[in-house]
Amino acid sequence: MRMKYLFLKMVFILLSATQFYGFAQQKDSVSEPVKNYWNLMDNFSLRYRNKNEISKTYSGDEIDTLTKKYFKAITEDPIGVKIKRDKDFQKWSSSGNPKEIKPAVKLRMMREIIANKYGTNFAEIISVPYYLKVKIVGDSGSVYISPENNRELRVGQANYFGIIEDVIKGNNFFKVNQKITISFLSFWVAESKRTFEVGKSYFIPLTPWDSYHNYSKLTIDILPDNNFANYPIQNGEISTPGNFFGIGSSTNWETFRNYFINKFILKWR
């Protein structure tokens, strides 16, 4: 019986990995959404000062344009954004120019500009590329191995196997009833008292992960609300302690879903 279970689990992992890997190929060229955003970001970063001066440095229309292009890049090509950042980091690290701004810092600066107009929570929420309703059907543990400072880093990895019940953001990449595997390093949620349970459904923010393998894995995208990407849905109600999304700590799922789409899936891109 155990051998059958292990065999079925391996089949599930292979199927879900194959379904997602098609979107995770290494890219030789930069997509238009990423290129458009990156060019604007480079221009903005040259004018960036500090939080107190943002409103004086950029007009409302300019921030709207930045937000639109940022949302479009994150939504349509999240892997491309990560790969572009990685490639620019390699150029930055070898340039030897102390005045050049680190790519990750540029991205953070742009989110601060968006947050200054629309709020920190809004900026954090639209930065997540995928939001799915997922039923967890199995789990396992494994060891994650990656090169780190010319040596192998080995840490515990949690893997949850799920079936997509609804796609709230990420329609270009996922569909209902698709099997997925969600993986993350165990120490990322070491302080959490909330764990995913087999047989239950969750609203989960997700992002491509693992640069060592061309971002072929899918992982939780943890928002800064101490819930560790864990928002259970039970009896038609979603639990969002802390009310990070701005609708309440416990809400009817359909009400929450419609609210989320209307507020955070930007129509004016």
Question: What's the topology here?
Answer:
Layout: H1 2-21, H2 32-47, H3 54-57, H4 60-76, H5 78-95, H6 103-118, H7 120-126, E1 130-148, E2 151-169, E3 179-185, E4 201-209, E5 217-220, E6 231-234, E7 237-239, E8 250-252, H8 253-264
Antiparallel strand pairs: 1-2, 1-4, 2-3, 4-5, 4-6, 6-7, 7-8
Helix pairs in contact: 2-4, 2-6, 4-5, 4-6, 6-7
Structural notes for this entry:
The chain has 269 residues and is of the alpha+beta class. It folds into two domains: 32-126, no CATH class; 130-240 and 250-254, OB fold (Dihydrolipoamide Acetyltransferase, E2P). It is 41% helix and 25% strand. The protein has eight helices and eight strands, in the order αααααααββββββββα. It has helices at residues 2-21, 32-47, 54-57, 60-76, 78-95, 103-118, 120-126, 253-264, and strands spanning 130-148, 151-169, 179-185, 201-209, 217-220, 231-234, 237-239, 250-252. Strands 1, 2, 3, 4, 5, 6, 7 and 8 form an eight-stranded antiparallel β-sheet that branches. Helix 6 packs across helix 7. It is globular. It starts with a helix and ends in a 5-residue tail after the last helix.
Short summary of the structure?
The chain is of the alpha+beta class.
Q: Which oligomeric state applies?
A: single chain
CATH class identity of the largest domain = Mainly Beta
Largest sheet: 8 strands, antiparallel
Instruction: Kindly provide the radius of gyration, computed on alpha-carbon positions and rounded to a whole number of angstroms.
Output: 19 Å
> Architecture of the largest domain, according to CATH?
Beta Barrel
* CATH fold node name of the largest domain: OB fold (Dihydrolipoamide Acetyltransferase, E2P)
Share in β-strands: 25-35%
Instruction: List the helices and strands in order.
Output: HHHHHHHEEEEEEEEH
Q: Report low-confidence residues grouped into runs of 5 or more.
A: 1-26
The counted number of beta strands is 8
Structurally, the number of domains stands at: 2
Structural class per helix/strand content?
A: alpha+beta
Query: How many helices in DSSP terms?
Result: 8
Shape: globular
CA-CA gap between termini: 52 Å
Q: Give the averaged pLDDT, no decimals.
A: 86
